[in-house]
Amino acid sequence: MIRVILADDHPLAIGGAEAIISGSRHISIVATCNDPDQVFVQLDKVSCDVLVTDYSMPGSSQGDGLSYLRFIARRYPATKIVLLTMIANPLSLTAAEKSGVSALVSKLDKLDVLIPAIDAAYVGKRYRSPAMQALFDKVESEARGNETITKVLSSRECEVMRMIVEGFTITEIAEKLHRSIKTISTQKRTAMHKLGVSKDADIYKFDFNMSDIKLGPSESAS
């Protein structure tokens, strides 16, 4: 029996997930929560194999979004995470996967895809629901004609952009690189201008490995 905790601040989302899972003979709901702190309490109290959770919920002592997901992955490594969300930003979703999420499910999908998502997460496999996979396929298709960066980025701009793609916030990047938040924000904005993009989601199209970057004449990769 797979033991599951459901977490969402919208009662309808909880109710819909409960209705689908209740029809399964091999999955049991052990708790429901409507904010992250309740999730932490339940994870400390009951045995849970898979957490099905929204991305952003108010009322967390550990922050929400990526901070919340990273905290769960770090503190409860045995619990697999299924992200059930309306987010359609590939950058954020990729960062979520890198932060410990095993399965991505869109709230635009039919809720019955929760069952294969939970099953996959439970055995340690990656899963993307049909709507999520379609989103990533679209981004990859758009990127085929622009697989390398032909605009000139400085090595520092490249470093900042690569860390953003890896899921770090501007504040976290500033701390790690020992630069001011203003400097990091400026480098991000300048890099996006050079790349001809205006939305964070568009950054996902590019590969920011140093070998693929044409560096500016005043800087080297070192």
UniProtKB/TrEMBL annotation:
<dbReference type="GO" id="GO:0006355">
    <property type="term" value="P:regulation of DNA-templated transcription"/>
</dbReference>
<keyword id="KW-0238">DNA-binding</keyword>
<protein>
    <submittedName>
        <fullName>Transcriptional regulatory protein RcsB</fullName>
    </submittedName>
</protein>
<keyword id="KW-0597">Phosphoprotein</keyword>
<feature type="domain" description="HTH luxR-type">
    <location>
        <begin position="146"/>
        <end position="211"/>
    </location>
</feature>
<dbReference type="InterPro" id="IPR058245">
    <property type="entry name" value="NreC/VraR/RcsB-like_REC"/>
</dbReference>
<dbReference type="InterPro" id="IPR016032">
    <property type="entry name" value="Sig_transdc_resp-reg_C-effctor"/>
</dbReference>
<dbReference type="Pfam" id="PF00072">
    <property type="entry name" value="Response_reg"/>
</dbReference>
<dbReference type="InterPro" id="IPR000792">
    <property type="entry name" value="Tscrpt_reg_LuxR_C"/>
</dbReference>
<feature type="modified residue" description="4-aspartylphosphate">
    <location>
        <position position="54"/>
    </location>
</feature>
<dbReference type="Pfam" id="PF00196">
    <property type="entry name" value="GerE"/>
</dbReference>
<feature type="domain" description="Response regulatory">
    <location>
        <begin position="3"/>
        <end position="122"/>
    </location>
</feature>
<dbReference type="InterPro" id="IPR039420">
    <property type="entry name" value="WalR-like"/>
</dbReference>
<dbReference type="InterPro" id="IPR036388">
    <property type="entry name" value="WH-like_DNA-bd_sf"/>
</dbReference>
<dbReference type="GO" id="GO:0000160">
    <property type="term" value="P:phosphorelay signal transduction system"/>
</dbReference>
<dbReference type="InterPro" id="IPR001789">
    <property type="entry name" value="Sig_transdc_resp-reg_receiver"/>
</dbReference>
<dbReference type="GO" id="GO:0003677">
    <property type="term" value="F:DNA binding"/>
</dbReference>
<dbReference type="InterPro" id="IPR011006">
    <property type="entry name" value="CheY-like_superfamily"/>
</dbReference>
